[in-house]
Amino acid sequence: MNVGIDKLAFFVPNTFVDMTDLALARDVDPAKFHIGIGQDEMAVNPTTQDIITFATNAAAPLLSEEDKKAIDMVIVGTESSVDESKASAVVVHDLLGIQPFARSIEMKEACYSATAGLALACDHVRLNPDVKVLVIASDIAKYGLNTGGEPTQGAGSVAMVVSANPRILKLNNDNVALTQDIYDFWRPFGQAYPSVDGQFSNATYINAFAQIWEEYERRTSLSFEDFAALAFHTPYTKMGKKALMPMLEKKKPQNADELMVQFENGIVYNRRVGNLYTGSLYLSLISLLENGELAAGNRIGLFSYGSGTVAEFFSGELVEGYEQQLRKVEHQSMLDARKRLNIAEYEVMFEEKLDLNHNKTFDDPTPYSVSEILDNHRLYKK
Ligand code: COA
What we know:
Layout: E1 3-11, E2 15-18, H1 19-25, H2 30-37, E3 41-44, H3 51-59, H4 65-70, E4 71-77, H5 88-96, E5 103-107, H6 113-127, E6 132-141, E7 154-164, E8 169-171, E9 176-179, E10 185-186, E11 195-196, H7 198-220, E12 229-232, H8 237-251, H9 256-265, H10 268-273, H11 280-291, E13 299-306, E14 310-318, H12 328-336, E15 339-340, H13 343-351, E16 360-361, E17 369-374, E18 377-381
Parallel strand pairs: 2-15, 4-5, 4-6, 12-13
Antiparallel strand pairs: 1-7, 1-8, 2-3, 6-7, 8-14, 9-14, 10-11, 13-14, 16-17, 17-18
């Protein structure tokens, strides 16, 4: 039985910072951000939009009434949780009107956890072919003003419906994962922003891809030449390239140039959004499908990386007619309709926080947003 991604969409908040503006404000050569790091724009969210509203805004346009009856599991992968105890997936389940006899959980392992969610979803559907699973990656990537990580921030969500006989990407159940106990990026309880050793995290990512690729080749006897494209976890768009290029130089596949062309197709949206943490790989997948010219039957490889670290490589094959399931027009319109913030506006928004100790109402016109703080919890507009 074929199992995989049947529907796929992303959502980003409607304000952004242009990386030239940020570079000039920080007294940095803009070429460092645009070329050295590979980012053109960075999504910024108001406090009335959090990982729950990103998730519901991404998923709602995908779900038919039939989907809402068939979904029996909602998984949210995030490292920007709004609660230490209650899973955001429980609220997302309610806001989306999914039938009640469902399992709703939140998963955590830095930028990796949505990949574990996707694997769990596929296993669940293989055992229960009539059900569907909603998997969402939702995060706010914040390193702090004037920090080394500042140009690699972002915010948003990717939603995927996993089902039998998927109409976009059937997944091959060939996952190779790698766990290593490393402190390259971490955020202890109560710390607003992560501790990060940026250069060490680059090195660990590159090394994880190299180790996993060798193991994947050994287990499957596949090579780069069996792939039409590869999509990478993209904390900033140069990162995947830094991992892929040394391996292409080492293995010298005949399709190296084609893989690099497709790599660029896979970062078009990421260049405009920045880091989505858990969602970054899947935003890159959407960018690849909506900007690359791939054919049914093409094999795509996906490399997921979460600091700490867990990394995973797996593959899927495009399904006949997959293009018709994409939301290219909607996605591009959403990106184009965003408001460009000046740096003073961005800095004010960056520092704003929701105070759960004071009741307050809000009026954010976004379809799903925080509408009220009441008695120490967030209420959302449906
Ligand atoms: N023009 C063009 N490129 C320039 C440049 C200029 N004027 N100035 C610098 N660069 C290039 C550098 O050569 C480098 O390229 P390379 O990586 O190919 O060598 C790149 O820009 C980044 O420069 P670097 O000095 O390494 O930047 P940095 O010390 O500010 O750190 C990060 C960059 C990504 C490590 C930092 O933003 C960070 O810590 N981010 C958060 C952690 C993260 O995203 N980790 C990724 C793994 S999950």
